[in-house]
Specification:
mainly beta, five-stranded mixed β-sheet, three-stranded antiparallel β-sheet
């Protein structure tokens, strides 16, 4: 479950954590439109470019710092790339429309 702790709002009830190089590299490639989110974790904050190569649906993205605070948000269309302007330790990929009232500065957590 992914929760916007600042707004006390559940964003999505199911998620998967991607910690391995393989899971981070493939993400939602060649998947049907998911009913869950992906959480990419990194050991320290870094720039995390995203590619939507072989992803056939739009996604909402949250880039979180080490305290799980939203640093940047993006909406990506299929077959596009995105280079964030800020470093992140976590990246959350959500099905489109699941962000609710999430804003930059909110704290997001998962259980």
């Amino acid at each position: 479950m992914i929760i916007n702790r600042t707004k006390k709002q559940v964003l999505i009830s199911k998620h998967r954590v991607c910690a391995s190089v393989f899971s981070k590299g493939f993400g939602f490639m060649l998947h049907r439109k998911p009913d869950y989110a992906l959480v990419f974790t990194f050991k320290k904050e870094r720039y995390v470019p995203i590619t939507m190569f072989l992803v056939f649906f739009q996604l909402d993205l949250l880039f979180l710092d080490g305290k799980k605070r939203v640093m940047e948000m993006a909406r990506l269309r299929p077959f596009r790339d995105y280079s964030p302007k800020k470093k992140a330790q976590y990246v959350v990929e959500l099905p489109i429309g699941k962000l609710g009232k999430t804003k930059v500065g909110d704290v997001v957590e998962w259980k």
